[in-house]
Amino acid sequence: MQSKATTPKHYIDELPENRKEPFLKLRRQILDNLPKGIEETIGYGMLAYVIPHHVYPNGYHCNPKLPLPFMNLASQKNFIAVYSMALYAKKDLMDWFTNAYAKRCKYKLDMGKSCIRFKKMNDIPFDLIGELTTKISAKEWIEIYETTTNKK
């Protein structure tokens, strides 16, 4: 479910009441732990945490006019999702995350390539998402991104 919001505030104002509290707690964890050089904006109809052009002028290879994606946060129809591109690109980070998740949560991890889906609002590991946010600096993400995209 893609939002037409143009600002993070507008996006949050559109959230259903039963999603606001957990969504805002996730957002706070991300913002409190966001590496230097990464900014919050709107991208792909959700909250986007990106490396802006003044830090990484090349932008996103799919569309260089867009900043380099780092992480996204979205309220979808049946769940809240955190999208972490680094999980997909760095196997040891994925291994750390899946192990840490299993230790902290009673429900099975529901995950796609970079999408972590939370259907049970009372079982969101807020602190784990905050910790995940700190695991890669903007500089390291750019290096991983450039190495990964140059192989294709």
- Broad shape: globular
Count of discrete alpha- or pi-helical segments spanning 4 or more residues? 6
Kindly state the mean pLDDT as a whole number? 92
Largest sheet: 6 strands, antiparallel
Outline the low-pLDDT stretches. Answer: none
User: Which second-level CATH architecture applies?
Assistant: Alpha-Beta Complex
SSE ordering: HHEEEEHHEEHH
The CATH top-level class label: Alpha Beta
What structural class do you assign from the helix and strand content?
A: alpha+beta
Any idea of the CATH topology?
A: Aspartate Aminotransferase, domain 1
Percent of sequence in beta strands: 15-25%
User: What topology, given as strand order, has the largest sheet?
Assistant: 1-2-3-4-6-5
Distance between the termini: 30 Å
> How many strands appear in the DSSP assignment?
6
Q: Which percent range fits the helix content?
A: 40-55%
Report the radius of gyration as a whole number of Å: 15 Å
What's the number of structural domains? 1
Pfam families: DUF1801 (PF08818)
InterPro entries: YdhG-like
Protein name: DUF1801 domain-containing protein
Domain YdhG-like: 19-133
What do these coordinates show?
With 152 residues, the chain is α+β, with helices and mostly antiparallel strands. The protein has a single domain, classed as Aspartate Aminotransferase, domain 1, CATH 3.90.1150.200. 43% of the residues lie in helices and 20% in strands. The chain is built from six helices and six strands; from the N terminus they run ααββββααββαα. It has a six-stranded antiparallel β-sheet with strand order 1-2-3-4-6-5. Strand 5 and strand 6 (115-118) form a beta hairpin. Helix 2 (17-33) packs parallel to helix 5. The chain starts with 7 loop residues before the first helix and ends with a helix. The mean pLDDT is 92. This is DUF1801 domain-containing protein.
